[in-house]
What we know:
Elements (H helix, E strand, L loop, with lengths): L2 H16 L5 H20 L21 H11 L3 H7 L2 H6 L17 E4 L13 E6 L2 E4 H14 L4
Antiparallel strand pairs: 1-2, 2-3
Amino acid sequence: MPGLQVQQWVNQKKLLENQGVLKPENVKPYLEFREKMLLALHEGGVPIIMSSDSPQVFNVPGFSVHNEIRAMQNAGLSNYEILKSGNVNVARYFELEGHFGKIQEGMSADFVMVIGNPLEDMENLKNVEGVMLRGQWIPEERIKKELERIAEKNVRK
């Protein structure tokens, strides 16, 4: 993230801490309610779609999805349902089920290849081997180099 954005986040967090907004006794009921509501919606048949509300305070686009996954787990969604929320449910929402959302012949070939089975452990989603994007394979080493380039470009001064 750009240094200016990070500094704004730091300032915002300090302000909220000084106001007492981020005290555990204030945050805990909100998080518990959010988990109950998410599970109730899911159990009620409401399709859940993975996304991130980035950029929020210290939520970096792309990486913040892991926070969302953890929140879904805490709410009680299965690994399978969480994974569906990031592909099948998204395709269904956009009414493009025949175009993407599954790894199947004739569908868009965009996916993240990970080491390990996320159905067994969602932490495996952090073990990226590469990304297939628009039919082009992007290996892990290229992704790391690009992330390093972005980080160097956005060093806070």
